[in-house]
Amino acid sequence: MLTGCLKTVKDVQMKLEELGHPMSYQSAINVLHSVEIYAEINKKKPLLTEKHKKARLVWAKKHQYWTVHDWRRVIFSDETKINIWGSDGCKYYWKRKCDHLQPQHIDVTVKHGGGGLMLGSCITSEGPGYACQIYDGTMNSEEYQEILGTSLKDTMEYYGLNWETSVFQHDNDPKHRSKSTTQWMKDSGMIYIDDWPSQSSDLNPIEHIWHHLKLKLSIQKTAPTDLLFLLSAL
């Protein structure tokens, strides 16, 4: 079980029966607890290939001498999916209290699964930006440019920011890197990070905003049951 071969208490119960030690489901749980083995929820991490890892290292070395002032200039942006029914599901693993995190305790994830609605926003050193709903969960280059020209612009005006002192961050999504979007940003005088490494959500502080937003939704007494209810709750 500690190596991940047996996933559930039922698996343990069946294995013990094979070894000549039949027992009830609750007895199997008691046996596990008696040797301080408990269930934990699998941790999640982005799927990182060797290419991803090399790109992250190159990017980190390029920016290793940035100061706190340099990072405070960055406007971080991102999109996230908000599920109607909350989490896509929890998986558990078993461990002793003294055990360290092991590979079998982690769920490797990829982006853009499931349903719900999409939100886009940004965060500055002065505070969070305006959020906007991405209808149908999809967006093309022209729609993305519209968001840059409205929600992002309004956020910068609210905090008194400008492109002489600010740097915009977005990821490598095709609509972010398209020729028309790149030209639009240049025409708008935007200064932006153009080499953000893929699968680097852990580098983006707006992820903490998404976490707290989803956490607040999860503890509401009445859970959203449709998209309109979910949107009003947000």
UniProtKB/TrEMBL annotation:
One GO term (biological process): DNA integration
Domain Transposase Tc1-like: 7-64
Domain Tc1-like transposase DDE: residue ranges: 74-218
Pfam families: DDE_3 (PF13358), HTH_Tnp_Tc3_2 (PF01498)
InterPro entries in alphabetical order: RNaseH_sf, Tc1-like_DDE_dom, Transposase_5, Transposase_Tc1-like
Molecular function GO terms recorded: DNA binding
PANTHER family xrefs: TRANSPOSABLE ELEMENT TC1 TRANSPOSASE (PTHR23022:SF134), TRANSPOSABLE ELEMENT-RELATED (PTHR23022)
Official protein name in the record: Tc1-like transposase DDE domain-containing protein
Organism from which the protein derives: Rhizopus delemar (strain RA 99-880 / ATCC MYA-4621 / FGSC 9543 / NRRL 43880)
